[in-house]
Amino acid sequence: MSVQVSQAVLDHGGAGAAIERWTLSSGQIEVSVLSLGATLHTVRVPDRTGALAQVLLCSERLQEILGPARHYGATVGRYANRIADSRITLDGEEHKLLPTGHGVTLHGGPEGFADRLWTGEPVTEGERAGVRLRLHSPDGDQGFPGALDVEVSYLLDPSGELAIEYRAVTTRPTVINLTNHAYVNLAGEGRGDVLDHLLTLEADHFTPTDERQIPTGEYQPVAGTPFDFRTARPIGEQLYEEHPQLAIAGGYDHNWVLRSPSKDGRPVRAALLEDPLTGRRLEVLTTEPGIQVYTANSFAGAVTGPSGTAYGPYAGVALETQHHPDSPHHPDFPSTELRPGEEFRSVTLLRFSC
C-alpha cells in the first residue's frame, strides 16, 4: 500500500490558506482526505465486475465545499448532532453555546470543526498507513468550555479497511461527540438515489424526537415501525409511510441505539449497507453507542458532484456513528462528558467489499 500527499492552494474564506489533500491507496481502493474539516472526501471501490466508482457524495467546487457541501464527509464537532436550547450545564455552571437556529446548536455551532483547517501528517502503524490530523479548539470555542486538543486519523490497511480514530483531551470539564458526516451511494455518486440500497442496523430501539429533532429521552422499540432494520431491507421500503417521526424529518434523520455497544474498546458492527445492483457492500463497526441515519431528505440540487449530477433527495445516506443527540440534557443516555486527565477515544471502521 502507498500513501501519497498532494496539496492544492484554494481560497479559504478569503485567507488564501492551503487546503491539503491526502491520497491513500490499497489495492483497488483509493481514499482522499482534505485538511479542511478533516474531511473524508472520496472513496473509490470496485463493484462485482471490478469496475471502479467514487461512492461518496462530494464537490470539487470551492464555493460548494465552503457552502452547501461543508459537512460532506467532514469531522463534525465539538458536539455532533443537536443540543437543545444552545446551552449545557456542567458541575452546576451553565454554558451558553452559539446557536445555529431552530432553538438548537447543531454540529458544534456556526463555526464548528467542519469549518476549520486541520494540520495533518502522514503516519504508518504496522501494515496500516494514512494521515493524522490535529486541531486545537480554544476554551470558549462556540461557547463550549475547556481548551480541546483533537486528533483524527484515517488509516487504511492492505485489505482495504478504513479506520477513523478519534482522540481528544481537555483543560476543563466539557462535552464531546465526534462523528464523520460522509454521504454514501454504493452505486456511485450521481447514479440515482439510495432507496433500493439494503440497510441492516444492529439496533432494537431508536430515539424519537420532538419537532426540533431533539430526542424526547425515550428509547422506542423499532418493532412494527418503519424504523425496523434488524434484517436487511430497502431504505425506501417504508420511507413514505404515515408515521409522525418520518413527517418531522421528511424521511430518516434519527439515531438508533446499538444493541450491543462496545464494552472493551473494540468496534462492534453497527450497520451493513448493500447495493444489489453493483454488489458493493459497506460494513460499519464502531465503539460508539449509536448511529444516526440521514437519507439526505432536504437535498435540493445545491451541490453538483464530479459526475455533473446535482444531488437531490436521497442521493446518498449518512451513517454517523456517535453518542446520542442532546445527551447533556438526558442523564440516562451514555455520558458525553470529558474531564481533565481523561482521554476521549473513539474508533469507527469502514469495510468496503463486493
From TrEMBL:
Pfam families: Aldose_epim. GO terms for molecular function: aldose 1-epimerase activity; carbohydrate binding. Gene3D superfamilies: 2.70.98.10. InterPro entries: Aldose_1-epimerase, Aldose_1/G6P_1-epimerase, Gal_mutarotase_sf_dom, Galactose_mutarotase-like, GH-type_carb-bd. Pathway: Carbohydrate metabolism; hexose metabolism. Its EC number is 5.1.3.3. Keywords: Carbohydrate metabolism, Isomerase. CDD domains: galactose_mutarotase_like. Residues 320-340 are annotated as: Disordered. GO terms for biological process: galactose catabolic process via UDP-galactose, Leloir pathway; glucose metabolic process. SUPFAM superfamilies: Galactose mutarotase-like (SSF74650). Residues 321-332 have a biased composition (Basic and acidic residues). It catalyses: alpha-D-glucose = beta-D-glucose. The active site is at H181, E320. Beta-D-galactose binds at N81, R82, H181, A182, Y183, D253. Belongs to the aldose epimerase family. This is Aldose 1-epimerase. It comes from Kitasatospora acidiphila.
